[in-house]
Amino acid sequence: MASLTGLTANPNPNKSFEILPNPGDSVSSLSFSPKSNLLVATSWDNQVRCWEIVGGNSQPKASISHDQPVLCSAWKDDGTTVFSGGCDKQVKMWPLLSGGQPQTVAMHDAPVKEIAWVPQMNLLVSGSWDKTLRYWDTRQPNPVHIQQLPERCYALTVNYPLMIVGTADRNLVVFNLQNPQTEFKRIQSPLKYQTRCLAAFPDQQGFLVGSIEGRVGVHHIDDSQQSKNFTFKCHREGNDIFSVNSLNFHPVHHTFATAGSDGAFNFWDKDSKQRLLVDALFPFLAAPSTVMVLYLLMRYAMTGAVGPKTTTRQLQRHPSTSTVHRNLRSKGSRGLRQAGSDFIPTCRICLLGQSPVLLCTLPCLGSLVDVNFSVPVGTDDRVSVASLNM
């Protein structure tokens, strides 16, 4: 009789692995170095941690602390330095590669929600809940310029010279960074609910905006291109509507990913108005116990071809619906852990060497199964890496 050994299911088909040590609380941002395989994660335990990712292994390199939860991070374009900002109202500059000590290079009057390094200007941009956007020369103690915002900064995206800032009250402020001290345009979000995330088009002709109402808007900057604007629904199940928490473009193919509070991420093509991959929903088996961070190495690279785990679906314009799951919790990450059925995944697509990488964070309700990998339930926050074969 022929052996059935070769038919045994592979328990780890995506070659996933966990990064240790785990963060002590929810992960708030993830950033790969633009020059090496160094990964930085910020978290609600006031820490900024760095690991080196080599093949199927990770090695902790270093960490620094803030006085309060850290909300955002960014690398300098030369890969030498990490910036981090958060609830202590400051941005720290960490000369990671040289082994130097972090120093405070930016201050706000309220928590710092977003930061971005702009190499073309050699400046750091920070957005805060104090309703200001500030430009910093890190060699000077005072900001180069303070730009008043109409409301608190909730989201920011930069693809030079285009920068868009999303604030409370659904304001979207567009800047041409060749003239950074003047608003280029201010518009009301095409979405009817609070802005959650933004992503500038790779060609700088427009941007994506996601809201807490499970909807994404595709918006062009040029008034002559407004007929190309549209919105579409996503991250919904029946009458249940979940927040879109992150939007990121693929750096090569210019398709994009969305991650939502339904615990799923999807891949889309805005030009053909199609969904390229069905919801990669993680079924969870138990009560909330930990926060997972998934790094999915995308060898398939989102080319848009339809494989065994993909499908295409035409995007349609939809009217608003009434049921909205709002999951901006006043208790921070602890509140998220008490939320039961809510998820807060985020995603970012970047290049790790020559391989596109999707970075996701989501609260784990049990063992991960289906398209990714199985991880036992734990009591702390975990980081894992997996190749995604689509």
From TrEMBL:
<dbReference type="InterPro" id="IPR036322">
    <property type="entry name" value="WD40_repeat_dom_sf"/>
</dbReference>
<dbReference type="Pfam" id="PF00400">
    <property type="entry name" value="WD40"/>
</dbReference>
<dbReference type="InterPro" id="IPR015943">
    <property type="entry name" value="WD40/YVTN_repeat-like_dom_sf"/>
</dbReference>
<keyword id="KW-0677">Repeat</keyword>
<dbReference type="InterPro" id="IPR001680">
    <property type="entry name" value="WD40_rpt"/>
</dbReference>
<feature type="compositionally biased region" description="Polar residues">
    <location>
        <begin position="315"/>
        <end position="325"/>
    </location>
</feature>
<feature type="repeat" description="WD">
    <location>
        <begin position="105"/>
        <end position="146"/>
    </location>
</feature>
<feature type="repeat" description="WD">
    <location>
        <begin position="20"/>
        <end position="53"/>
    </location>
</feature>
<feature type="region of interest" description="Disordered">
    <location>
        <begin position="315"/>
        <end position="337"/>
    </location>
</feature>
<protein>
    <submittedName>
        <fullName>Uncharacterized protein</fullName>
    </submittedName>
</protein>
<keyword id="KW-0853">WD repeat</keyword>
<dbReference type="InterPro" id="IPR020472">
    <property type="entry name" value="WD40_PAC1"/>
</dbReference>
<feature type="repeat" description="WD">
    <location>
        <begin position="63"/>
        <end position="104"/>
    </location>
</feature>
<feature type="repeat" description="WD">
    <location>
        <begin position="244"/>
        <end position="278"/>
    </location>
</feature>
